[in-house]
Amino acid sequence: MPPNATTDSHRILVIDDNAAIHDDFRKILQQSSQEKVDLLKMESDLFGQDVLPESTTRFRVDAAFQGREGLEMLRRAKAENRPYALAFVDGRMPPGWDGIETIKRLWEVSPDLQVVFCTAYADYSWRDIQQSLGPTDGLVILKKPFDNLEVLQLSHALTRKWALNRDVQGRLRDLAFNDTLTGLANRVQFMDRFAVTLSTALRHGHKAALLFIDLDNFKRINDTLGHGVGDELLQTVAERLRRCLRDTDSIARPSLPGLAARLGGDEFTVILPEIQRGEFAATVARRIVEHLSQPMDLGQHRVLVTASIGIALIPQDGDTVETLLKKADLAMYAAKRAGSNTYGFFQDSMTALAQQRFTLENQLRHAIARKELSLHYQPQFDLLTGRLSGMEALLRWDNPELGKVPPKEFIPIAEECGLIVSIGEWVLRTACAQAAAWIAQGLDIPRVAVNVSVHQLVHVHFLDMVRDVLAQTGLPPSCLEIEITEDLLAVKPEIVLTTLRGLRALGAQVAIDDFGTGYSSLSRLKELPVDCLKLDGSFISDLAGGIPDQALLDAMIAMAAGLGLRVIAENVETHLQSSFLRDRHCPGGQGFHFSLPMPRDQAEAFLRGEKNKTRPEAIPPGRVACQEEERGQD
Ligand code: C2E
Ligand code: MG
Ligand code: MG
Q1: Is the CB of 395 under 6 A from ligand 1?
Q2: Mutate to test the pocket of ligand 1, among 381, 394, 466 (most ligand atoms within 8 A of CB)
Q3: Which atom of ligand 1 is nearest the CA belonging to 534?
Q4: What is the DSSP letter of 17?
Q5: For the purposes of burial, counting CB atoms within 10 Å of the CB of 352, is it exposed (0-12), middle (13-18) or buried (19 or more)?
Q6: HSE-up of residue 417 (Cα within 13 Å, Cβ side)
Q7: Which pLDDT score, from 0 to 100, does residue 102 have?
Q8: Which stretch of DSSP H or E encloses residue 357?
Q9: Ligand 1 atom 34 nearest Cα
Q10: Sign of CA dihedral 6, 9, 14, 18
């Protein structure tokens, strides 16, 4: 921090070979209070509002007889972080350097030092001085003999100028090296500090660690609650990171404190420049995970954020900044895949995994163009009448290099790299076109259900896209059901609500998929334009488990009925489960017990047969081959 321009004392260095001059400067700059008041008045006229009557700029004067001695004092003051603001330098100081040489040397050490060059009239011309010292605004010439007031005026004006310069430079430095939003170190400072940490650790043979931190659900919060809340969230995260480092530093007392940085977006890093053992890095990471997962109150919103952290250790994980960053990043991804809200160390196997993911992402980019995607259709039934109530379209990817890749594996990747928007559009178009074609053939398909990921739903053109698909395929809107997972509802109101209302306005239906495992609050359910709840498979597979699950199921069915929602129980696999559901008056069901998801042609054959059928009891014998293929894939 630069010293305050009006109240702090400024250090002034006098370099003159005459001891009497040293005394003069001390007297002038430590004048009587009356003189000071006069001067302040004068200063006030000169500088305006800045100078308050009670402000007192005090000077601390040190003196040297020779340039060399002055230079030493300047160096020491700088090293002690008590720099001189101003030097009065005599023109001639035999037998040592003259004034010009002295100033040149002083500026080599402190380029921002303000200098008053004290010289008798005939000694040097301004041109001589400029030629020797170069163009500068840090120099004033004072002709000898000088007046006390001149010395005072110059001291006030030049020390103030020095302080303001430092202030501006400090701010510029802040801008260049700190993240403006959070105040943490920015990428530039981080790279710089990490390079120093690395070389120091390698030279002295000690351990250090890099933590790579990524927020798990930031993008969704930002997209749905808006950037204002997103910014506040990042500031809160930064504050919590600082607190974690302070806490852990005070416990472990490392010789060098940790540094937190924001690399951009929701990516943060922490450098632990000197650690005894790798476990200390884990302790810090654990604390960060714990602190960050505490609820945050941002405006009217209470938000839950979690973080995934990857740790790379110096020296064992590498000896270049790039390698260590990459490994910490890989470890972070592994932590995310392990379920988020956790941390992990880099392991060699991760490089192979990353390679695999890279291949998958690359192949996925061409999947639509190379016609590797297809849809399977799984029937949904009205359990009370036994009639077909809909068909859920489920995406399949068959790649020549990777084989059949299950959706649980490639959809998260498509979401992360943004491909889900185009893939999702392909799914919707294909499913709607297919359903329209079946209807045109006179087949009875009451509804086609299409899964839509949160990333698609919050996309600005989502509703336009749905409208366009319905118009182009000619599918009656009431025959389309959009399935969304309930975690979408955790984050957010406006966008979700607007989109769901938009879907309803189009005439399409909305189902909440995998209901009961995520965040939905029942009270919110009431406000949402939703038509159907798909009870998560885990409730049904636990049914044999006993009373509590049955009670839960009963409660959910009753609640849905109260809200006027349809219900489909997912993953019905056995006759027992099916009859149990019917006994509890569960209106709908879907699962391997009734039918596996089927490729288009089989689904079509199924629909033709379905025309004359009621009450589904078991998978028709003819479809066993297809079931086994499906099971093998899942
Ligand atoms: P989901 O939407 O809940 O789909 C149901 C999943 O359960 C399907 O897995 C289906 O094959 C499986 N399933 C059906 N009946 C049973 C059963 O009786 N027992 C068991 N254990 N499983 C059953 P699939 O096709 O592997 O899809 C997995 C998830 O991938 C889907 O879960 C959905 O969340 C996502 N998904 C699939 N297709 C798409 C798509 O086109 N877009 C998006 N965004 N997500 C999709
Ligand atoms: Mg679904
Ligand atoms: Mg589901």
Answers
A1: yes
A2: 394
A3: 3
A4: S
A5: exposed
A6: 14
A7: 96
A8: helix 349-365
A9: 451
A10: positive
Please choose from 381, 451, 517 the residue to mutate so as to test ligand 1's pocket, defined by most ligand atoms within 8 A of CB. Answer: 451
Q: What is the pTM of this model?
A: 0.58
The residues of the chain that CATH labels 3.30.70.270 are: 187-347
Digit-coded pLDDT (tens) for 264-311: 999 999 999 988 888 889 989 999 999 999 999 988 888 888 999 999
Q: In CATH, which of 3.40.50.2300, 3.20.20.70, 3.30.70.270, 3.30.470.20 is domain 187-347?
A: 3.30.70.270
Q: What whole-number distance in Å separates Cα of residue 140 and Cα of residue 158?
A: 9
Query: Exposed, middle or buried by CB within 10 Å (0-12, 13-18, 19+), for 295?
Result: exposed
**Which residue's alpha carbon is at the smallest distance from atom 12 of ligand 1?**
571
325-328 long-range contacts, Cβ below 8 Å, gap at least 24? 325/194, 325/210, 325/212, 328/210, 328/211, 328/212, 328/269
CATH architecture for segment(s) 359-633: Alpha-Beta Barrel (3.20)
In the chain, residues under CATH classification 3.20.20.450 are 359-633
For ligand 1, say whether the CB of 453 is within 6 Å of any of its atoms. yes
Q: Give the pLDDT score at 56.
A: 57
Query: Is residue 614's pLDDT more than 60?
Result: no
- Interval between CA 535 and ligand 3 midpoint (Å): 8
Q: Is 394 in the pocket of ligand 1 (CB under 6 A)?
A: yes
Q: What angle do CA 485, 530, 426 make, to 5 degrees?
A: 55
The architecture (CATH level 2) of 10-176 comes to 3-Layer(aba) Sandwich (3.40)
Distance between Cα 396 and ligand 2 center (Å): 13
Return the residue whose CA atom lies nearest to atom 7 of ligand 1.
571
pLDDT band at 261 (very low <50, low <70, confident <90, very high): very high
Which ligand 1 atom minimizes the distance to the CA of 452?
A: 44
